[in-house]
Every structure is written in structure tokens, then in C-alpha cells.
Amino acid sequence: MKGIVLAGGLGTRLHPLTKVTNKHLLPVYNQPMIYYPISTLVKAGIKDIMIVTGGERAGDFLRLLGNGSVFGLPHLHYGYQEGAGGIAEALYLARHFAGDDCICVILGDNIFQDDFTQQISDFEKNDGAMVFLKEVENPQEYGVAVLEGDKIVDICEKPKKPPSNYAVVGLYVYEPDVFKVIETLTPSERGELEITDVNRHYLSKGRLRYKILNGYWGDAGESIDKLLMVSNKVRELGLSLNINSNIM
Asked: Can you give the residue ranges of the Nucleotidyl transferase domain (predicted)?
């Protein structure tokens, strides 16, 4: 299993904080935001990780993260996304890095309390895809799962009238053929390749599974208020990171 952290985008919802830096380099409590998703992957047992970013400040990731030794990694890989073509487009840039391995994709502004070790360990190459859900108060801001019994039957992207309160959070596990799926996509009305369309493809084939999160989840990139709320929650929960503080 290989890990991919998507840390591109313009971060316009966090202006003016992001006018001079990438949002994933902003602090969440006492650590850079990007530290949290990397730590989530490392805690799940993933040691081969690629960071996909973009914009004028992409080089700052290399200065901050280096070769990944602060996380106990032998090295980190980097990819560059030109423009803002969507999550699926950013993921496609990692196709050569992923090779024939399954991948775990995490959005760089998503903060998780859960440990995903078991789900990652159990995922096999013929498992299709797996998404994670969390019950939220504002589902209209996210991709929302439509559930019937214990099955997911549809995913709606930012619906005005949400069919449920279960948001599809920014962590996805895919088998190696996900890149072939992305090649079949067409841009949405926003001009982007949507990760929801990737997930709906697997859903249409009956090959999309889901797990509901037990612990805290926060989208630190949703707004400045949410960034503050997530920071305070991280402090309150005392969320720990898989980092070597001696070499920071």
C-alpha cells in the first residue's frame, strides 16, 4: 500500500491567510497542517508516501518536510499539479509512483483521530474502493452518502437538500485500476475532475465499500472559523503525531 497526500489548490476559502502561502502549511494548533495527514498514513503502517502540491509555494513543502525523516520515513516523493484541475486530476499525477500497488489517498487539510491500520491492512487489490463517512451538521458542504440499510447507493456532491448527514471525508483507498477510471472522467461544471465521480464509478460496479468513523474528523480548509475550531479540537483531544521531535 502506498500513500498519497493531496496538498494543492488555491486555498481561496482561507484568504487572506493563503495569499502568501499554501493552506496546508498553515498551523493547526502547534504543528503545520500537512503534518497531520502524513502522520495518519504513517500510523496506519504506510511508509511509501508522495506529496502532490502546486502553486508558487510548492518549494516550501520540500524545505519543511525534506526527505521525511521527521516521520521516520526513508524518503518522500513529490509531485506538482499545475493549476486547479480537481482532486482526481491531482491524484492522477501519482500514477507512476503508485505502479501496481493499492493506494490510500488523504486530503492535506483533513484531520483524523481514528487509526486506519486495520482497514489498510485488510484491503486487497480486488477490493475496488473504500470511502469513510462521518455524520456532520453541515452535509451540504461535502459529498454526501445516500444509504439504504447497510449499503451505500449514491453519493451527491454538495447537495442543496442533503439526503443524509453522512459526509464522505477526505480519505480514500483504491485498487491500482483507479488511474484507468480517472482517464474516463470528464470535467464537472467547475472544470475539474471530481473524486466523487471516481467513487461513483466503483459504486456503479458494486465495488465501493464504506466505514463510518468513530473518532473526530475535521476539515481545516473549509473556512477560517473551521481552521480555528479544528485547532482548538486538536488541542483539546491532545492528538499526537508520529514525528521525531528531536530532528524537527
From this structure: 2-234
